[in-house]
Amino acid sequence: MQAHDQIRSAGAHVPALRRAVAILDHISASSDAPTLSRLARALGLPKSTAHGLVQAMEELGLLVRAADGSLRTGPHPMRWAGDFLARTDLVSVFRHAIAESRRFERFTVTMTVLDGSEVVYIACSDASRPLDVTFRIGMRLPAPFTATGKALLAARPEGDLDGLFAQGFPAPLTRYSVASLGALRRELVETRERGFSIDDGQIREGLFCLGATVGDHTGHAVAALALSLTRSEATPEVIATVGRSLVEAAADLSRRLGGG
């Protein structure tokens, strides 16, 4: 529900704080800075009410009024944003989320970030029954072969791939590793359609991984989660169920980072 819908649905019973947040949401989402009159009309507020709120918000540095009367977000919210961003840490968010949930205890869960054409492992939670593979913090692998790398590459503009692999495509790690940029592009199309990525033995034969991106407060994919299991466990039913759960977990981490 949009801010103006929230105000209209709740009418006169909406607290002043809720109205102030709706004003900030509307102004920050507007392509051009609205005047007080336009703001009041858009939010369905009496002009006198809007005037009183805007005046108080100007005094607090939440809004600034230009010479032509248009309203823009003021400097004060940046203090809150800066504090939030300074306290937010990908690894910390990962650890807290894993600690709070038991749904992935059976599986190894990793988090990576993209660095050029490679992924770097920054966090790992081992399964209750460890796999015959170790994901070391700081380890690098070619992005095209990993579930997290495929997810992150699928989130990038199509034109980025040519630049990332201008120096050549990485040598395969197994006989199942994607062999060319063209084949990778086809996998990325499937990833976008499916909603999560799949690495079926591409970094290690017998290992099956699913990946999904984690977004920050801007919606930009800043990391990706992968869930690893053995190939024998990866039945179509398990893939579908675990894939949905992984996407939900990645969305939860995104919300913790300020994403939508």
UniProtKB/TrEMBL annotation:
InterPro entries recorded for this chain?
Answer: GAF-like_dom_sf, HTH_MetabolicPath_Reg, Tscrpt_reg_IclR_C, Tscrpt_reg_IclR_N, WH-like_DNA-bd_sf, WH_DNA-bd_sf
Q: Which GO terms describe its molecular function?
A: DNA binding; DNA-binding transcription factor activity
GO:BP terms for this protein?
negative regulation of DNA-templated transcription
**Which stretches make up the HTH iclR-type domain?**
14-75
Does the record bear Translocase in its keywords? no
Recite the UniProt keywords alphabetically: DNA-binding, Transcription, Transcription regulation
PROSITE patterns in the record, alphabetically?
HTH_ICLR, ICLR_ED
Top-rank taxon of the source lineage equals: Bacteria
Query: Which residues belong to any copy of the IclR-ED domain?
Result: 76-259
Tell me if Transcription is a UniProt keyword of this record: yes
User: Known PANTHER family for this protein?
Assistant: HELIX-TURN-HELIX TRANSCRIPTIONAL REGULATOR, ICLR FAMILY (PTHR30136), HTH-TYPE TRANSCRIPTIONAL REPRESSOR ALLR (PTHR30136:SF24)
Report the protein name in the record: IclR family transcriptional regulator
Species this protein is from: Gluconacetobacter liquefaciens
